[in-house]
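Exercise 7 asks you to align residues with tokens for two separate proteins.
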Amino acid sequence: MAKQKWSNMSKSHLCKLIYRSVLFLSAVIYYVLFLIFGKDYNDGNILFADIGDVPVFLILMVFIFLGEMVFRFFPTKHEAIGNQKIFKVNYIPTTTTVEMKPRKQHPARTLLVFGSWVLLNGIIATLYFTGVITADILVLISLAYGVCDLICIMFFCPFQAWMMKNKCCTTCRIYNWDYPMMFTPLLFLVARPGPVLHYVLIGASFVVLLLWEISYIRHPERFTENTNDRLSCKNCNEKLCRHNKFFPCKSALVKNVEDRNTIREKSEIEVNK
């Protein structure tokens, strides 16, 4: 069987993974070299207030990630349908004889993700405020989250596999949580004197989240495959399942789940006749 090619969207994700990884590794290398060969290390100001008191890595983070977030505020073909489904232009009502209600995931799954994230970052916050780690480590953790974000999309997502149980990124309930989650460590720097560039990233990411949640409340039909045909496999141009082997559409187990969903849809239609 011929090897399946990656889609343009997959290639775009790969490019993001590469430059985010380069930024993270550059910051780690600089941090380590400064600790070994630099001047006296004081109060974690290597990355947070860098060369000549100019926060070089924070400036790069703002330039890169703010540039990415801009595309979350309007419809574009250059972004994944997973985050673009909030816009009306990407809503294709499913064609059924009976009006279908959005089959939303149980809120408990979303709360499980939220709770686990709060727990993880609560530990990080405790380490920071007790002086175990410095502001630089928080910046490195934030950059590491950015790399992990793309790994989740392309190869394996623990939130999708173990908690949300959604089909793939296309139907992900928390897709646009990525930037707020990425910059969670920077929240702990809000009360810290020094550069304020992190406020820009935090503010923009939470505006993205607010837009997402408002859309989910007002237009839930755009978020579920049984009401939005744009999210169906037949209309998918991204084909992330070609390289993310953990997505349900690649496993026989979830094919059975999809079969059960199809049967359930038919039974719902029969009941509503």
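Second protein for Exercise 7:
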Amino acid sequence: MDYVIYAPKYCASNGVRVLFKLADELIKRGHNVYLFSEPSQGKDYKYINKLTKQLRNNAVIVYPEIVFGNPLNAKKVVRYVLYYPGVNGGDAKFDENEMIFTFSSEYYKNADLLSISTMDLSLFYRDDTPKDINCYFINKGGKWKEIPEFKDFVEINMSYPSTREELANLLKRTKTLYSYDRHTLLAEEAYACGCEVKFVLENGFEDFVPDPTNNYTIDEYNNFIDNFINKTQNFPIDKIAQKDNLLKRVLGIRASKENFSKYIKLKLKYYLYGYVFNNIKKSQKYWFRAETIYVLAKKEMLEH
């Protein structure tokens, strides 16, 4: 079975790392996996920037919840919900033809669980390192509250520390980690390193308490993967999306001359950079912008 995973470039984000870990698990089980993503140094996968007709019609395409619609115009679409739909981008509701899996039942009800842990216990563990600093973390939701004491603390973000090893070493030195983001793997990683972890609230702080329901056994973890494979290999006929070709898209947004013009220009740039210059990074950027315009324009037409 062929899988195509639509993912941002590999980075410190746990959601992105989960998508790449899913690719690893599928490859390990003998499946052919393509990453519709910008190539990352040290990450050896089959990267693509366009779909063949064969892949579009037969492969299972996995989109995270941050992606609007079905930009690859695929027939077999899986939506992997890694956070609350619509909060960080993408649609708040998904197409009825999509097969939905969720990282946590808190993010999406009545969907099969696919909880993939990326925490490396060979790096994140408690040792005898003296705890001489405090840290804080912002990420999702932004810095919605100023806390004067934090000016003397070390900020952890998507760019610093730059490696997982450096992050683990920093957390082992950390006495208390304060996080504005309640839904982050960093809290669990810090806790594993012996840190006290506190979430920032409107009126004070709340201690982080590990959720015992998220501590899955190896067998349970493998069952998540096996269930995903079994269901996606037997894609129901009623879940196969209808073809939505470029002409229909163009006609669908004709009511807005501004959107029409933007869409055509972006599509031309996508084909130019993807097929002529073979520049994956730029071609995907223009593809995503074009598809976002299409989806938003389609919504506007439905509302009117």
